[in-house]
């Protein structure tokens, strides 16, 4: 018998011939958040900052200047446009002049950049989570991983209250990355320290 | 109300004054106490050590002994928890389905002392007097299986003369765990050491709890280190009054709070 | 193989001689050594109290925590009830999306599959994301025997690997080491590290980043575990903090994921429950920094060669036990370890298995057969703290008690303990015999010669009590005797 068939046969033996009915799953937990949009934005900001992300808020018209300000914040030693790479679907107005676009070069070469600018698929207020979905706007996964500073532009209508609403909005088969603050570890004495292998700096431009 | 008292095997054999205090207290509150003579043990020690087959006749004896009781009260959270969570299952596994149903229905009428006082009788001030500094250890099975919550503390706060000292790390297990104390004696002792350190840090004269077994453990450790802090069951405190101090109960202060802090002799 | 009840099928357990599910000493013996290590006690006490407080705070802010917990429990129970169908669906979906699914009966077969897959790529080193399944099967040793070096990339796993140590915690394998000890390991084993390295956790984390950066960039094969797999979509999930997981899941050309067959959930929606329960229970965060979700292969993004190895290794034997199968609901958060008074004092090594603490005490004996880990179900005072914090409400104390019975009932010859318990059971089942036995126990007071406590030097097993605690002298008369005398029987 193949391993596959043997493991499946073992499961059938374990569960017996007269199987118990499948227990009902009661989903009486919160699946929506009725709080006003403005309050959700405040919660998102609070959660992001709690996990040591920097948040810059602006109006749609201020995005170009705020992205530049975000890069100034994330790269305090200064930056040249050529140090910054953006996801291919990032709208032109969000791109500071002279920045590079991810053109599908070998992923490891992205490590040469100092910062990345991407958009998100959805943001979850209650957990301070940004979700990138591999779309042209979010870029491929390596893009938001290798450069040490990540700038994410979040539009107000992308913000939902809780995890259930966030997951419902996503393309299920896409390569998804949920990001909650800069990379961190609790491996030394279970105390949280920000900044390990992923971007050590996360700057969020929150629009609206 | 006619209350059937389940002394529990440990209290009956080793610390009878705890059952006596429970009876005195319930009678003082105006209730009739009966002590069914056929009672022995709830079977918990057997079940928790792996002897659930052997436990079946013990449980059956318990069910027979208390058959027909209106309300059953025991001065032990652990035994009551076993009655609630284990007895029917033990009998069912042994094929004793009718007795199992009876055990389940008895369990519904079986109460730990503080639950009976607060929930059934609706009293928190039982008219007790106990002029000592006391700290309360919420034993694991009272806390997590029976969810007695703050009922014992509400009872203790109403005791005249009693000074209640908060126990640090109160929800931590004392390390008794039935045969765990013997099978894993070193780990048990390590847990006991930390519990005793917390008890002593309160400078209480008395450490109380709703389980004689845990108190036997904590008290055994405190006695070995000649600490002077005693363990006294909740029932004994609640049974104490100005007029009648329990006969077997020491009223000598052990280490007074002042002495322990070294500010005066 | 254990003797099982009639009607309960006997299925193979995890094989001996491979992997890390069995200790070489019974728990009480291993615990005794650990308890003597004051530094270990201090490190564990500090770390577990830190994480307990963090967990309590972030759980308290979720108003529907109990509803989430109940849903998590129900989803897992529903998954197990139709595990075969869900696994077949998972296989279909992963395959349709360009992945390859392998099935492994046990650790030996899983190790062989992975080794062969790595060999086929022609490389001699792999990067690894922390994974309980690969620790369980001893994959690193199997790869090493085949001439393949496995680099652990999780900070705590790295500390353990560099220190030639064993993991002692599900989430934080190096929990038994404090910052000074970690600094010392780094100074000794990282040739490139700055000799002025301090014991500041931030500096230590930076040293690990520098140490691993080059390895990530050159890695061609990565090996991971999985926190969840969604049957209906074929999606796999890895929940992590540092970004080492993302590095491994994103940069190499080949990704091999080893996953126990119990880790899947039926539907996408189920993730909305577990992605709330897991981070708050494990690291005490509202959400862990990174969660990666991938479905098969995505052209132009991440590994283009993806293999999923589904592992049994005693899980179907566990599934066959109607009480014990609940242990398969575990999502490896380690909250039960952090609140366990036994774990806090002995640490994880005493359990002898990669799964320590309360969940390990119910999982390891079921994976190996209870007789191969017979001391573990007794390594608990049954205080119940584990059940209270478990995000999927596994009734660990009840399973411990059940496994104790399985052990007792598996004995072919009566042990002295069993004889004693049987005699006691006979006595306690009959009121008259019990009264006589109580009188006999009362005679024990003669040994005390009028003192309030019994002598400290008593024969075993009483000595194991009296070596650290006094035993009160039994009274002359029991309560029930006195009551009967006063009230008439």
Spatial separation of the terminal alpha carbons of chain B: 49 Å
The share of residues in helices of chain B is 40-55%
Task: Note the overall shape of chain C.
Answer: globular
Helix and strand composition category of chain C: alpha/beta
Give the low-confidence spans of chain C.
Answer: 1-6
Secondary structure: number of strands of chain C: 10
The largest sheet of chain C, given as strand count, sense and whether it forms a barrel, is: 6 strands, parallel
Total number of helical segments of chain B? 15
> What is the CATH topology classification name of the domain at 66-311 in chain C?
Rossmann fold
Mean pLDDT of chain C: 95
Mean pLDDT of chain B: 92
Alpha-carbon Rg of chain C, integer: 26 Å
Write down the CATH class of the domain at 66-311 in chain C.
Alpha Beta
Q: Give the spatial strand order of the biggest sheet of chain B.
A: 2-1-3-4
Helix-strand sequence of chain B: EHHEHHEHHHEHEHHEHHEHEHH
Number of strands of chain B: 8
| Portion in beta strands of chain C | 5-15%
Distance between the termini of chain C: 52 Å
Shape of chain B: globular
The greatest interface between two protein chains, and residues involved on each side, is: A-C, 74 and 103 residues
Number of helices of chain C: 23
Structure description:
The complex is a heterotrimer of chains A (208), B (265) and C (489). Helix content of chain A is 22%, strand content 22%. Chain A contains four helices and twelve strands, in the order H-H-E-H-E-E-E-E-E-E-E-H-E-E-E-E. In chain A, the strands form three sheets. Chain A has a six-stranded parallel beta sheet, sandwiched between helices. Chain A has a four-stranded mixed beta sheet with strand order 8-5-6-9. Chain A is globular. The mean pLDDT of chain A is 96. In chain B, helix 4 packs across helix 6. The longest helix of chain B has 17 residues. The C terminus of chain B is likely disordered. In chain B, strand 7, helix 13 and strand 8 form a beta-alpha-beta unit. Chain B is globular. Chain B is an alpha/beta fold. Chain B is built from 15 helices and eight strands. Among the domains of chain C are: 246 residues, 3-Layer(aba) Sandwich (Rossmann fold); 72 residues, no CATH class. In chain C, strands 1-10-7-4-2-3 form a six-stranded parallel beta sheet, sandwiched between helices. Chain C has a four-stranded mixed beta sheet with strand order 8-5-6-9. The chains are: A alpha/beta (208), B alpha/beta (265), C alpha/beta (489). Chains in contact: A-C, B-C. At the A-C interface, helix 1, helix 4, strand 9 and strand 10 of A face helix 2, helix 3, helix 4, strand 1 and helix 8 of C.
